[in-house]
């Protein structure tokens, strides 16, 4: 009997020892030399990144012991546990998230069949649980040795990215290379955070470009953090280092609901709802040709210190981001008169429309500050498709059923006024500052068209033009004509903006709106 018990105990200890050995092996990644090489580049390992991002002690790993099943090109000689990606779930500031982190120390983080299965499994779990999905990307791309199996793995991930879109927030953090077809998974997610100096994204690399087109370009110029955050608009944030990337994720998550069935999260109140900043009353210059900084209005109106700008470096004539208003998370859209007078061009159209649709998908009220001098003129803009790009803004705002509030601060000219969440596309409440000008176009342009013959026939054409322009301004360079027709709900002092928006948002908290029954619309692209 004793021998039997001892044998049983010995067998159990052997099993426990085996488990501990497996766990230790899984933690090794690609081995000490490759981990040291990763550190030498100033980069963390896959697990170190997860542990730095998530709340301490909250990470629960899934599928740590999966290995690839391929035998070609020497793969039969190495079966590292986890197969180059760490997956699991945990918490950020107490809120549940699912996560994967590509491990560059294992076969260069190359993506194969099993890695794809692991990522797809955690994405499915995120959808079922209704929690955000975060991907930490650092990979050499498709595992060439696995051929079509690797391509299949990517396809399955892309499919899930698409299904999850508008259901759970998806965030991609770029912490290394991402090339070829691999870029489409981050591109399908809601937000991309790139890390300066260590991350890059491109469809074809410098060598291929040189061979095909003869152009010479380095990796950073082609697909680095600033290239994509300022020029292409692919990246929403450019962080200085990994720590800043993770801090950006944590702050971003704090504004977002976990899924599309939840309201936007509210925070404890930190600012006086009745606070009225008198500097707003003099923010807009008396001369309509003089620019001003719309960020000053945003910072003064919303809860102090809560504005998180998105796409800061891209299409700077428009501003989008998240803020809190009396503790409630909201989406903010504005034009920036400091850049190109706030005119709407192709890039700003895409920037605004995409952000509006994200906010609508995740129940985040939209607050728009409109100063719209018009759409950008020019052959390049017309041939580049400003018509279809600008139409995206109309579509996005018209389709949105969340509470929509607009403040017209100055110029509201023509189609640009209409598309920026005007009453005409069914925005719930529209306020105007006394400096608002709502008309088809500015006074000078209007009189040149309306009174061309009269001006030409006048004894003093310049004086007649000036007289007619002033007459036009007297009629339209104020918001009262629009208010008289119900297109502006109220004309307010700029300093009153904060309490008025808070009151309107409270009224619309339980807004109910339905769109016509359809599979989906056909948005201009």
What does this structure look like?
The strands form 3 sheets. Strands 10, 11, 12, 13, 14, 15, 16 and 17 form an 8-stranded mixed sheet that branches. Strands 1-2-3-4-5-7-9 form a 7-stranded mixed sheet, sandwiched between helices. Strand 11 (318-325) and strand 12 (328-335) form a beta hairpin. It has helices at residues 2-27, 32-40, 46-53, 113-129, 148-164, 184-188, 206-213, 219-223, 225-232, 242-255, 294-301, 346-361, 379-384, 386-399, 414-419, 443-450, 452-457, 461-476, 480-484, 497-507, and strands at residues 60-62, 85-92, 95-102, 133-137, 170-174, 177-179, 191-195, 200-202, 237-239, 308-310, 318-325, 328-335, 366-372, 404-413, 429-432, 437-439, 490-491. With 525 residues, it is an alpha/beta fold. The relative contact order is 0.07. The chain has 20 helices and 17 strands.
């Amino acid at each position: 009997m004793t021998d039997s018990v001892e044998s049983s105990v010995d067998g159990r200890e052997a099993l426990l020892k085996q488990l501990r050995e497996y766990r230790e092996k899984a933690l090794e990644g690609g081995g000490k030399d490759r981990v040291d090489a990763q550190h030498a580049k100033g980069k963390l390992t896959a697990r170190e990144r997860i542990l730095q991002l998530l709340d301490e002690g909250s990470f629960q790993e899934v599928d740590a012991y999966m290995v690839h099943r391929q035998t070609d090109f020497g793969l039969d000689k190495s079966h590292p546990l986890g197969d180059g990606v760490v997956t699991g779930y945990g918490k950020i500031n107490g809120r549940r998230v699912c996560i994967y982190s590509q491990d560059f120390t294992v076969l260069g983080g190359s993506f194969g069949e099993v890695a794809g299965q692991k990522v797809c499994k955690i994405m499915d779990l995120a959808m079922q649980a209704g929690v955000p999905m975060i991907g930490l990307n650092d990979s050499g791309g498709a595992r060439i040795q696995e051929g079509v199996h690797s391509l299949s793995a990517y396809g399955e991930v892309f499919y899930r990215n698409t299904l999850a879109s508008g259901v759970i927030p998806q965030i991609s953090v770029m912490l290394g290379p991402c090339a070829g077809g691999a870029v489409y998974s981050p591109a399908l997610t809601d937000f991309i955070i790139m890390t300066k100096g260590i991350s890059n994204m491109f469809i074809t690399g410098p060598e291929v470009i040189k061979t095909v087109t003869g152009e010479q370009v380095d990796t950073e110029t082609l697909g680095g953090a600033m290239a994509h955050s300022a020029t292409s608009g692919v990246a929403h944030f450019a962080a200085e280092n990994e720590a800043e990337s993770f801090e950006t994720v944590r702050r971003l998550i704090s504004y977002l609901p976990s899924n599309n069935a939840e309201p936007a999260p509210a925070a404890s109140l930190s600012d006086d709802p009745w606070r009225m900043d008198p500097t707003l009353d003099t923010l807009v210059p008396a001369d309509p040709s003089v620019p001003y900084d719309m960020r000053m209005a945003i910072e003064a109106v919303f809860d102090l210190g809560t504005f998180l700008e998105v796409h800061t470096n891209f299409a700077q004539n428009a501003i989008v981001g998240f803020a809190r208003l009396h503790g409630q998370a909201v989406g903010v859209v504005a034009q920036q008169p400091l850049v190109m007078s706030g005119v709407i061009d192709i890039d700003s159209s895409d920037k605004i429309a995409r952000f509006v649709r994200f906010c609508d998908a995740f129940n985040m009220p939209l607050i728009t500050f409109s100063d719209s001098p018009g759409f950008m003129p020019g052959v390049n803009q017309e041939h580049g498709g400003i018509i279809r790009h600008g139409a995206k803004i109309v579509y996005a705002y018209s389709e949105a059923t969340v509470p929509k509030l607009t403040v017209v601060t100055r110029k509201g000219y023509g189609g640009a006024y209409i598309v920026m969440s005007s009453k005409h596309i069914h925005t719930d409440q529209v306020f105007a500052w006394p400096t608002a000008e709502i008309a088809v176009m500015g006074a000078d342009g209007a009189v040149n068209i309306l009174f061309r013959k009269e001006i030409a026939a006048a004894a003093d054409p310049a004086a007649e033009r000036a007289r007619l322009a002033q007459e036009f301004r007297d009629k339209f360079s104020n918001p009262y004509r629009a208010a008289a027709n119900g297109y502006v709900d109220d004309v307010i002092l700029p300093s009153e903006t904060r309490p008025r928006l808070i009151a309107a948002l409270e009224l619309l908290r339980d807004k109910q709106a339905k769109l016509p029954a359809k599979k989906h619309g056909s948005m201009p692209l």
